[in-house]
Amino acid sequence: MMGGYGDVQLLNEDGSRLDGRKVDEMRPVSIEAGILPAADGSAMVTQGLNVAVAAVYGPMEAHPRKIQRQDRAVIDVRYNMAPFSTSDRIRPGFNRRSREISKVTAEALESVVLVERYPRSKIRVEIEILAAEAGTRCAGITAAAVALADAGIPMRDLIVGVASGKIEDTVVLDLDKAEDNYGQADLPVGILPNTGEIAFLQMDGDLSPDEYNLAMEYNFKAAKEIHEIMVDALQRRYQGGEA
Amino acid sequence: MVQLVPTLLRQELARLAEEDARIDGRGRWDSRGFNLETDCLYNAEGSAKVVLGGTVVYAGVKFELRTPWPDRPTQGSLMCGAELRPVAGRKYEPGPPSPQSIELGRVVDRGIRESGCIDMESLCIVPGEKVWGVMIDIHVMSDQGNIFDACGLAAIAALRTAVVPAERFDVGEDHVLGVKGTPIMASFTRVGGRFVYDATEQEELGGDERIHITLGDEGHLHSLQKGLKGAFTPAEFTEIFDVAQERCVELRKLVAEKEGN
Questions:
Q1: C-alpha separations of B188 from A130, B89, B212 in Å
Q2: Å between A211 CA and nearest CA of chain B
Q3: What is the DSSP letter of B65?
């Protein structure tokens, strides 16, 4: 995914980004809850050109028995990109990238779901990326949070996936595809807006301590905005329209 | 996951069948209503979403450049695959492609391929060297019955709206794929002893064998498949075949509407 930077211009002369966004502006986000009738809870998150869908099944009996925990539920996450979600077709099936994202996403969700309420059970979270244009793991986390809430599973907070990064030595919020390919750093996080905690953290590239602080500031600001959209999606589903 | 077939459900379906009724109140040959949306996925060269009751599927078309098979140097290729991932329902588990998902992909594939709606010669760029490979991937997101018809419809609608990305591959200008026909699948399931069209998940759970019929524009058969345990009579086939003709004409109109012609 990393391209050589420096040879591609990502900022306009006036300091705006190629798609016209300001440095601290995210792509438009829309969320719909309860879109998959077969699932116990579901959500679709559209962020720019990204489309992420999450389905939740459970809590259900954990099997095989060796995965059971006597004192809590286990959360089984699968992050998967559809073959047609990217410019070049992806061969169906797991790869190293999707396995790693699934693992750290599961651990992030275990930090917010009240897993101790459901000993010996399993909660399945299926994240399917239908269109990918950078930032899909974050859109997937946001979708998973709304789907878990839609399934009625108690949580400490609604976790929000957001990312900031660096392009042309400038910290920007929510990298798009070109910025991700030719940028200098990417900092995807999962934020709990009400407690101010971070339950998901990854980063690659090069950031100074000051740049890290600014990127995180952008992330927290964006998380608040997305959180409102998540709450709105759930209210539309359960209050039949106006919140 | 092991699926139990509740005896009570089977008894109820049999009782309803005697009264010529269905569990959700529909007539024997009624569908739940197909909702079709095309061009809905940014990175796919052709895409479609079908919602049929509680069943939701997506199909996306991608192209690749490849060398032709040695015995067919002037022909491109077509592949249609379906994924029944755990997202689709409680009964689906992770792992390598299941026999069910392979059957689903292959039945849809045969209907499209055998209808001849794609001219394989038109996918040739340089004979013996370079041809287009067309790949239709079907993603089942929610299974509440009759995923076959939903997948068949999504696949042909995605294909018919596909644009060949020639510019990106540096082999000319982008152009529409040019699909000549609209093969449509109609599926019937034996429920309570007799066949019904567009079975729900409950009817499938408490039912028996299913029959899938794919018909082309002229009403010719292009693909047939009988699945699951059970056997039927020629008279029964004649009955459902007549219904299939009608339903396929209706759905072909729906696809045409979504193409805007």
A1: 30, 21, 6
A2: 32
A3: E
**pLDDT single digits (tens) B28-70:** 999 999 999 999 999 999 999 999 999 999 999 999 999 999 9
How sure is the predictor about A241, in pLDDT bands with cuts at 50, 70 and 90? low
Q: What residues contact B133, with CB distance under 8 A and at least 6 apart?
A: B63, B64, B65, B66, B76, B77, B78, B79, B123
Collapsed DSSP state (helix, strand, coil) of residue B129: coil
For chain A, the structural domain boundaries read: 29-239
CB atoms inside a 10 Å sphere around CB A187: 23
* Contact call for residues B196 and B184 (beta carbons, < 8 A): no
B146 vs B140: CA distance, rounded Å: 11
Q: What is the value of pTM for the model shown?
A: 0.93
Cβ(B138)–Cβ(B155) below 8 Å: yes
Q: Kindly determine whether residue A37 and residue B142, on different chains, have CB atoms separated by under 8 Å.
A: yes
Name every chain B residue with its beta carbon within 8 A of the beta carbon of A53. Answer: 87, 141
DSSP A10: -
Domain A29-239 has CATH 3.30.230.70: yes
Q: How confident is the model at residue A1 (pLDDT cuts 50, 70, 90)?
A: very low
Measure in Å the smallest separation between the Cα of A87 and chain B Cα atoms: 6
Distances B201 to B59, B105, B234 between C-alpha atoms, Å = 21, 19, 26
- B175-176 vs B184-191, strand pairing mode: unpaired
The ipTM estimated for the assembled molecules is: 0.91
Q: How confident is the model at residue B190 (pLDDT cuts 50, 70, 90)?
A: very high
**Residue entry with tokens 């200008």:** B173
Chain B residues with CB under 8 Å of A128 CB are: 85, 87, 139, 141
